[in-house]
Write a structure and sequence with these properties.
This protein has twelve helices and eleven strands. The longest helix is centred in the middle third of the chain and has 21 residues. The chain folds into two domains: 164 residues, Rossmann fold; 148 residues, Rossmann fold (3-Layer(aba) Sandwich), CATH 3.40.50. It is elongated. It has a seven-stranded mixed β-sheet, sandwiched between helices. Strands 7-8-6-9 form a four-stranded parallel β-sheet. Helix 1 packs across helix 11, helix 4 crosses helix 5 and helix 8 packs across helix 9. The chain is 36% helix and 15% strand. The protein has 381 residues and is α/β, with parallel strands linked by helices.
């Protein structure tokens, strides 16, 4: 059958601080009146693709102009990303629902679940002989999608995680428990944990150790490194994830790592865990991150108008992009079939041999993504 004239936006997986910005980009670009006028009405699924099957959609084209403008400043997602794995049998029901609303263009936004669901929908449409353009905007606070230089949502979450690490240091330095373990998101990849290294400045040495899922550590050597930091600074902040392990394959998430360090150093210790609040922190939205999400939303709408399908939009870093100056990205695209459904790993050149820290190369890569310097805290001389 002929391609439907309506479009649908759906989110799959966890929201980011800039997901709404990408939605605004799509709506603004379509609202301008695309060259080929490929979209008539545009809807939003209020509960992921499951919501499509259940008929839980909203007319996004009927929203007030002020609402669309405010989306760029609103963290999280106005469209729920509730996600469940779909079986092959669900494919026919999904396509039937898309037919009902005459959806000819499906925009999927989110992390790895969005990539998986985009591929699922393409295959389901082929089986049902249904013509549809399926396009994806990867968005991830954990930088988990291996598309482009980084995924929008990461820069803002990285800034929030770095600030959380600095604040944890203030609590450890002035509190009764000199060992603080902070757990951030990243079961399969440690980009957010690595980003806490950006908390360091001349007045703040923490975090002193950073453990990532990509590299197992020697528990005894790690504890000795923590002991040396305590002897030097009088407190220790260690950042970990729920995917970190030692060389005996023992988990080193926050609770377990705190027990290990308290036992080996014979010092009071506590742990904190930051999760969704870091991913969608409105107070820490990085300007560049917000702009990148919006621009990719505009780009994906243009691709749809050109009749393309099976693509993910992404960012490429232009030039060296070192430090806070000279950072520039260009919008690009790549075939969905070339985007892995496995988490993007932190490369070995960004990790120290001990597995307890990151290299200067990572800091140079990540620093521009935070959108400027953080507030400087005072320190006694």
């Amino acid at each position: 059958m002929a391609r439907g004239e309506n479009a649908l936006i759906a989110v799959a997986g966890a929201p980011t601080a800039v997901t709404n910005g990408a939605i605004a980009g799509i709506l603004d670009e379509i609202g301008k009146g695309l060259e080929n006028a490929s979209v008539d009405e545009i809807y939003g699924a209020t509960a992921g693709l499951s919501g499509i099957v259940e008929g839980r959609i909203i007319d996004l084209g009927a929203q007030k102009r002020k609402t669309i403008e405010n989306l760029r400043r609103t963290p999280g997602s106005v469209l729920s990303g509730r996600y469940r794995f779909l079986s092959e049998e669900d494919g026919a029901a999904l396509i039937a629902a898309l037919k009902k609303y005459q959806i000819g263009t499906l925009f999927l936004l989110g992390g790895l679940p969005a990539i998986e669901l985009a591929k699922f929908t393409i295959e389901a449409a082929k089986r049902e002989n249904y013509e549809i353009s399926v396009l994806c905007v990867p968005l991830s606070p954990e930088n988990e999608v291996a598309a482009g230089d980084h995924t929008p949502g990461f820069g803002s979450a990285a800034r929030a995680a770095a600030i959380a690490a600095r604040d944890a240091a203030r609590g450890a330095q002035g509190g009764e428990e000199p060992i603080v373990v902070l757990e951030v998101g990243g079961a399969g990849a440690g980009w957010l944990a690595a980003a806490t290294s950006l908390a360091r400045d001349p007045g703040n040495s923490a975090p002193h150790l950073i453990l990532l899922p990509e590299q197992e550590v020697d528990a005894d050597e790690m504890a000795e490194e923590a002991r040396r930091a305590y002897q030097k600074y009088g407190y220790v902040v260690v950042v970990t994830t729920d995917g970190a392990k030692d060389k005996n394959d023992e988990q080193l998430n926050a609770a377990q790592l705190t027990d290990v360090l308290s036992d080996k150093l014979n010092l009071p210790a506590r742990w904190d865990k930051v999760g969704l609040t870091v991913s969608v922190s409105g107070a820490n939205i990085a300007r560049a991150d917000a702009d990148e999400a919006y621009n990719l939303g505009c780009l994906v709408a243009t691709l749809a108008d050109d009749g393309l399908s099976g693509y993910a939009v992404s960012l490429k870093r232009d030039g060296e992009g070192r430090g806070e100056k000279g950072y520039k990205v260009v919008e690009s695209s790549q075939k969905l079939e070339d985007v892995s459904e496995l988490p993007r790993q932190v490369p070995s050149e960004y990790l120290t041999p001990s597995g307890t820290n990151v290299t200067d190369a990572f800091i140079e890569w990540a620093k521009p993504l935070l959108g400027g310097a953080m507030i400087e805290y005072a320190a006694l001389s």
